[in-house]
């Protein structure tokens, strides 16, 4: 297996606040990686660094063998990094279909954009909503749209940031099945999720972030059994119930 | 924001409305008085300016209060070409616009160093610098300005009636052309990019839109077409001065009022705004500064009801969209 995204000694500070603390992380192509950690641990910031929305204060980020630390977000998307935002950013003045079309044209292959969108609409269950204004969607549908829009750019690695919260049991099952399908198609998935049972149903490796640092990683079951993680996990559980 | 599914294809009504309006305007020289014709010319020129400012501010979020830089530059370059280059007037006009577009590259490069409110102020400062430079050219009348020589004016057409006719159709082309071009652009893939940038910049970048490039491209294109309109405006006035050419009131404040009242971020908004602006002006011509105060109050009032302006208020009352851009998913 080859590494698709690699972080070497990546740190990010906002003034005196260190939000990402010397993170080393390598993601294999086609891997399903889970990320957990308490609120404010710096998980979303990690996605902003990988996606190029933020520049690291220190360290380098690689796409395969290429240093992409200085590459703007738009070009990282074209390389194959597709991301969702934890707080959805739909293009509210367009329909759901147009949201995907825009992503497919600018971030993927413009020629096959309509077919790509059709496939993504099917896959994510958004087809019945295709012609609705994105601004009229509720929060759960907006989260779904976040995932769909990232998928429409035909990424090689998909970054999902807390998309399972608030779903019913059945919806959560359907989401897990969808992400498994995506992963089975050969796409690498990095998934930040508080709904741990959903996460564990998909990922092959789990990473724990606390106060910006990578504090544990490995086989999901082993990581979850780690007493230190259990300690943090109690915190996560409390968040989850909130 | 509509919550109901978008109603599909009631195109005929809106197409008929657009067609009737175009025919009505195209025939204006045959039904309108000279005064009305002049007013229509001015309104069509303002429509072109408003469409360009709306594209810039309403879609790509570049709030410029310095569009007078391009109106004035277009006017001055046009006068210079008309008087000294020997080019026919109808050629000098687009050449002045193209030259302004070229100048917009380095000027844009400077303005793009600045963000948000600083960009807005920066564009204004740039326009002021243009005004000061224009006043330095004694061949163009320096600070007191210059009139287009009568023989140059006559080269457009010998009779006044024929000149009015030619000028009217230039204005018609600018006004209608600006709407058509913006509409075609919004229907192309660039329309998706503009709307995406309008709605969320971080999301736009995350899906591969190079927003700085798109914005720069829009800045240069709107500078050139604003200069084209500027050239026409001073051809119609037959006289140019630095203060008139680079007036922040006339070419930025009024345009911003028009777009904000009518509805920013839509094609219909600037059209509605221009109609409102000129209707109000015909009633309030001699109110002096009360006219401006009314205008400002109206803009604020509309904003309080709906930040997307009159057009959004009408749309939420069921008025059908005139310029359709939606790409429907066909199951
Ligand atoms: N742009 C920013 N400026 C300042 N602080 C920020 C910024 N973005 C995130 N932070 C801070 O960084 C910390 C980590 O945030 P985040 O990555 O969103 O955490 P998580 O996703 O793990 O909940 C938080 O304390 C947050 O307030
Ligand atoms: Mg987060």
UniProtKB/TrEMBL annotation, chain A:
Keyword Secreted: no
GO MF terms, alphabetically ordered: ATP binding; ATP hydrolysis activity; L-isoleucine transmembrane transporter activity; L-phenylalanine transmembrane transporter activity; L-valine transmembrane transporter activity
Any Pfam family matching the protein: ABC_tran
Gene3D superfamilies: P-loop containing nucleotide triphosphate hydrolases (3.40.50.300)
GO terms (BP aspect): D-alanine transmembrane transport; L-alanine transport; L-isoleucine import across plasma membrane; L-valine import across plasma membrane
InterPro entries in alphabetical order: AAA+_ATPase, ABC_AA/LPS_Transport, ABC_transporter-like_ATP-bd, P-loop_NTPase
All copies of domain ABC transporter, residue ranges: 5-236
Keywords from the UniProt entry: ATP-binding, Nucleotide-binding, Transport
Name listed for the protein in its UniProt record: Branched-chain amino acid transport system ATP-binding protein
Source organism of this protein record: Celeribacter baekdonensis
TrEMBL record, chain B:
Membrane-crossing residue ranges in chain numbering: 12-31, 43-62, 69-85, 166-186, 216-235, 255-280, 287-305
Membrane among keywords: yes
Membrane topology annotation: Multi-pass membrane protein
UniProt KW keywords: Cell membrane, Membrane, Transmembrane, Transmembrane helix
Protein's UniProt keywords contain GTP-binding: no
Superkingdom classification of source: Bacteria
Example GO molecular function: branched-chain amino acid transmembrane transporter activity
CC annotations in GO: plasma membrane
Subcellular compartments: Cell membrane
Database matches in PANTHER family: ABC TRANSPORTER ATP-BINDING PROTEIN, HIGH-AFFINITY BRANCHED-CHAIN AMINO ACID TRANSPORT SYSTEM PERMEASE
Name under which the protein is recorded: Amino acid/amide ABC transporter membrane protein 2, HAAT family
Origin species: Celeribacter baekdonensis
């Amino acid at each position: 297996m080859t590494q698709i995204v690699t972080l070497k000694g990546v740190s990010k500070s906002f003034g005196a606040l260190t939000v990402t603390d010397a993170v080393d992380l390598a993601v294999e192509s086609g891997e399903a990686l889970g990320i957990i950690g308490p609120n404010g641990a710096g998980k979303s910031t990690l996605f902003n660094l990988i996606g190029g929305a933020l520049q690291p204060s220190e360290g380098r980020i690689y796409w395969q063998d290429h240093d992409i630390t200085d590459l703007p977000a738009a070009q990282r998307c074209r390389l194959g990094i597709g991301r969702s935002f934890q707080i959805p950013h739909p293009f509210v003045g367009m329909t759901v279909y147009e949201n995907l079309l825009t992503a497919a044209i600018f971030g993927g292959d413009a020629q096959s954009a309509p077919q790509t969108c059709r496939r993504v609409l099917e896959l994510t269950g958004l087809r019945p909503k295709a012609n609705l204004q994105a601004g009229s969607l509720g929060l759960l549908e907006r989260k779904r749209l976040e995932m769909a829009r990232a998928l429409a750019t035909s990424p090689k690695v998909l970054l999902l940031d807390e998309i399972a919260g608030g779903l019913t049991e059945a919806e959560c099952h359907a989401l897990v099945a969808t992400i498994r399908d995506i992963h089975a198609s050969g796409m690498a998935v990095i998934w930040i999720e508080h709904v741990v049972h959903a996460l564990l149903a998909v990922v092959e490796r789990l990473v724990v972030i606390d106060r910006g640092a990578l504090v544990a990683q490995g086989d999901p079951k082993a990581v979850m059994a780690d007493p230190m993680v259990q300690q943090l996990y109690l915190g996560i559980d409390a968040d989850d119930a909130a | 924001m509509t919550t109901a599914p978008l109603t599909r294809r009631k195109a005929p009504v809106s197409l008929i409305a657009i067609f009737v309006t175009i025919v009505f305007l195209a025939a204006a020289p045959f039904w309108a008085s000279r005064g009305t014709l002049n007013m229509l010319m001015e309104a069509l020129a303002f429509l072109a300016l408003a469409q360009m400012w709306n594209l810039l501010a309403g879609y790509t979020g570049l709030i410029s209060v310095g569009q007078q830089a391009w109106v004035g530059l277009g006017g001055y370059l046009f006068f210079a070409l008309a008087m000294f280059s020997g080019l026919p007037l109808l050629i000098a006009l687009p050449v002045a616009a193209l030259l302004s577009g070229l100048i917009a590259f380095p000027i844009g490069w400077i303005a793009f160093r600045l963000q948000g409110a600083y960009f807005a102020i920066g564009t204004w400062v740039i326009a002021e610098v243009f005004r000061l430079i224009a006043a330095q050219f004694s061949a163009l009348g320096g600070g007191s300005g210059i009139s287009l020589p009568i023989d140059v004016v006559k080269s457009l057409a010998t009779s006044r009636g024929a000149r009015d006719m030619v000028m009217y159709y230039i204005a018609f082309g600018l006004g209608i052309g600006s709407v058509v071009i913006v509409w075609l652009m919004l229907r192309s893939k660039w329309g998706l990019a503009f709307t995406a940038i309008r709605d969320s910049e971080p999301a736009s970048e995350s899906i591969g839109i190079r927003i700085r490039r798109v914005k720069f491209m829009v800045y240069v294109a709107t500078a050139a077409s604003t200069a084209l309109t500027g050239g026409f405006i001073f051809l119609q006035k037959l006289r140019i001065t630095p203060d008139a050419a680079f007036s922040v009131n006339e070419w930025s404040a009024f345009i911003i009022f028009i777009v904000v009242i009518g509805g920013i971020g839509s094609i219909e908004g600037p059209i509605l705004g221009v109609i409102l602006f000129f209707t109000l002006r015909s009633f309030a011509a001699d109110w002096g500064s009360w006219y401006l105060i009314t205008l400002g109050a109206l803009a604020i009032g509309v904003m309080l009801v709906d930040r997307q302006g009159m057009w959004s208020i009408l749309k939420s009352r069921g008025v059908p969209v005139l310029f359709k851009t939606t790409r429907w998913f066909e199951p």
